[in-house]
Design a protein that fits this description.
By secondary structure, this protein is of the alpha+beta class. The protein has helices at 2-20, 27-38, 41-51, 55-80, 82-101, 112-128, 139-148, 152-189, 253-257, 290-297, 320-324; strands spanning 238-241, 249-252, 262-269, 280-289, 305-309, 315-319, 330-335, 338-339. A 4-stranded antiparallel beta sheet has the order 3-4-7-8. A two-stranded antiparallel ribbon has the order 1-2. A two-stranded antiparallel sheet has the order 5-6. The radius of gyration is 27 Å and the shape is elongated.
Length: 347
């Protein structure tokens, strides 16, 4: 029971971490996809012919059962050989970690769920499994071990608390995942009118080693102060321009995009980027001109900067002159001909 309970809380924690960090796949799905990749074609076809469309759900259930059974066996081994059992327990998240990082689209964030889940599961297992790893023979030794071991009632209580925590964390992971899916669905429904991302003539030199004019959206660099970006639906988003202005301005997402969009090729570069580094990208950005919005709000003569505040509390200061000197300073809503990805500030 100790090993299985530790496996359950570790799994739940890993799933929650995957949801919060927006990992491309959770550890369970990563292992499942690895199994699909490694399964010979003839075997896979035979399995599909037997179970039909239930092959994927059954595979996920099989991975879950394998994890819990493996954790339970590791817990049993820990009773006799603590080191061996601990090694077996650690091997389970290592398998998930390898499955996640060997994917073609793997990112650094995809490593963390398996690591976090493995650490939590191991800590809980070490807490639940008694430290008496040898079965004493003498009555005096048995009495001494019994005095150090938790009672059965306390053990069952701890297991119950662990399973309850696993249920709560698992529910939170489902909630976090559903929030992401809901926002992604809202993003797919957004309909905007903007120019196709066609590169200007003469910019593609065809020289080996030179980056393309357009940086693909999915490889565009991202520097953030938070582990996960805010999840906001367009219907819940509001722009408020206030403070040292003549007229406070409040615009919904629909109000904003209905004003018409301006398209501009803009290169972004991180201040920490080195020569030849990857923290730079060029994209076709579509949005509403900031000078138009600010002109409508009417900044007071003594105002000299714009303080932007995100839903999650992040702030950034921008000189007012940089937004009103005629350059294409945009409040962007689209990138390379598509609504902004969640990772880059949707909506």
């Amino acid at each position: 029971m100790a090993g299985a309970s530790a496996g359950a809380i570790g799994l739940a924690t890993a799933e929650l971490a995957a949801a919060l960090l927006h990992a491309r796949v959770s550890p369970v799905l990563a292992v499942g996809e690895a199994i699909i990749e490694l399964t010979p074609g003839a075997v896979a076809e035979r399995a599909i012919s037997v179970v039909g469309r239930a092959d994927k759900p059954l595979l996920v259930i099989g991975v879950l059962c394998g994890l819990l059974i493996g954790s339970a066996l590791a817990g049993v081994v820990m009773l006799r050989h603590r080191g061996l059992g601990t090694t077996a327990l650690v091997a389970l998240p290592v398998v998930a970690l390898v499955a996640a990082i060997t994917r073609a689209d793997a990112r650094a964030a995809d490593m963390l769920p398996a690591v976090v889940g493995g650490v939590v599961g191991l800590m809980v297992a070490l807490w639940l499994v008694p430290r008496s790893t040898v079965s004493p023979s003498a009555p005096q030794e048995r009495a001494h071990v019994a005095s150090r071991s938790p009672s059965r009632r306390l053990f069952l209580r701890d297991v119950g608390l662990t399973l309850l925590a696993a249920g709560v964390v698992g529910g939170a992971s489902r909630w976090a995942g559903s929030a992401r899916r809901s926002v992604e669905e809202a993003r797919r429904k957004v309909r905007l009118t903007f120019a196709a991302p066609t590169a200007p003539s003469g910019v593609e030199l065809g020289v080996p080693g030179i980056s393309p004019w357009t940086t693909p959206t999915d490889t565009f660099y991202r520097i953030d102060t938070s582990l996960a970006p805010p999840l906001i639906k367009p219907a819940d988003w509001v722009l408020r321009i206030h403070g040292m202005v003549e007229r406070e301005l409040r615009l919904s997402y629909s109000d904003l995009v209905e004003r018409g969009l301006t398209d501009s090729w803009v290169t972004l570069c991180c201040v920490s980027n080195e020569v030849g580094g990857e923290l730079i990208g060029n994209a076709l950005w579509s949005g509403v001109r900031m000078d138009d919005l600010l002109a409508e709000a009417g900044p007071l003569p003594e105002a000299d900067a714009l303080l932007s505040t995100s839903r999650d509390g992040w702030t950034c200061g921008t000189p007012l002159s940089a937004l009103t000197d005629g350059r294409d300073a945009l409040l962007a809503v689209a990138m390379n001909g598509e609504p902004l990805p969640v990772e880059h500030g949707f909506p």
